[in-house]
Amino acid sequence: MTEDRDTLSAAAAYGIDFAREQLNGKKLLVLTGAGISTDSGIPDYRGEGRVARHPMTYDVFMGSPAARVRYWARSYVGWSRIAEARPNLGHQAIAAAERHGLIEQIVTQNVDGLHQAAGAKSVIDLHGRLDRVICTGCKRMIKRTDMDVLLRELNPSVRKDEHIEFSPDGDAEIEAAPDFKIPDCPICSSILKPDVVFFGESVPTDRSELAMAKLDAADALLVAGTSLTVNSGMRFARAAVKAGKPIVIVNLGPTKADELALAKIEANTSLALERLLLD
Questions:
Q1: How far is Cα 73 from Cα 66, in angstroms, rounded to an integer?
Q2: Which candidate in 91, 115, 127, 163 is catalytic?
Q3: 103 pairs with which residues across the strands?
C-alpha cells in the first residue's frame, strides 16, 4: 500500500526508527532523485499518476535541428518553473544533517540545484545542472539565464504560460512553433546544449569515478526519492551491497533495489528525512 504524502504510517515510522538505529554513527552517502523535489513543485518522471513520456535523447538532440528547436522552445517556456522552485523539508533536512556531520557526501540525479539552494556543500550533480548551458564544440559554459535572454531576443513574440504541465528537466508540455529560433555558440557557432546528461548519454567519467570513490569512503548508503530505474543510480546500490554497506531507501513506490535494502521506508521524502536525520 502506498503511503499518503502528508502522513507517516505506523510502518513507515517504525522503519525510520529502525533505520536510525542501524545508521547511527555511520558516515552516510546520500543518493537522491526526482522524488525529493516533488514537494518543491517539480514533478517526477515515474511517480503515481504521471503520464508516460519520452524525454529527449542525446542522439536525437545532436542529430536533429528540428528536435533542438522543439527542446529549446519547450524549455524556454518551462524553465522559469524550475528556476523559481525552492528547497523543501527534504532538501533542508539533508543540508542540516550535513552541517551536523552526519552526511559525508550527497550525490543527486536531479538537475535542479535545490540541494545547494538549501545550503548543502558536498554535492555531486551526477546528471549535471539545468542552470548551465554548454557549447558542444568549444565547451564554453554560459548561464541558463543568459540563454533565456538569447532565446527571448530571437523570439520576441513567444509568451510564457504558467498554466502548463512540465517535467523535471523544465520541458514544458507544448507543441513548438516550427519557426522558433535558437542561437548557436557565439564563439564557435557549434550547438548549444543544456549542461545535463540526456538519456542515452554517459555520465562524465571523472564525475562518476568521484561519486563512487565517495561511496567507498562512506559507511552506508541512504537513497531518497528515486526508483533507481536508471543504471547511473542503481550502480551505487550494487556497489554498496558488494562492499557490505547497509542501504536504507526512502521512496513512495517500489525501487529496483528494494530487495537489497536493510530498510525500505515507504513515505514522502520530506516527512521521512526530517524524522530520520533530524529528530
A1: 11
A2: 127
A3: 28
Residue 119 is placed in which grid cell?
Answer: 545550503
* 115 flagged as catalytic: no
Does the structural domain 10-278 have CATH classification 3.40.50.920?
no
> 239: closest CA among 224, 258, 260?
260
pLDDT of 93-136, one tens digit each? 999 999 999 999 999 999 999 999 999 999 999 999 999 999 99
Residue range 178-200, pLDDT digits in tens? 689 999 999 999 999 999 999 88
Q: State what percent of residues in the chain have pLDDT above 70.
A: 87
159: pLDDT strictly greater than 80: no
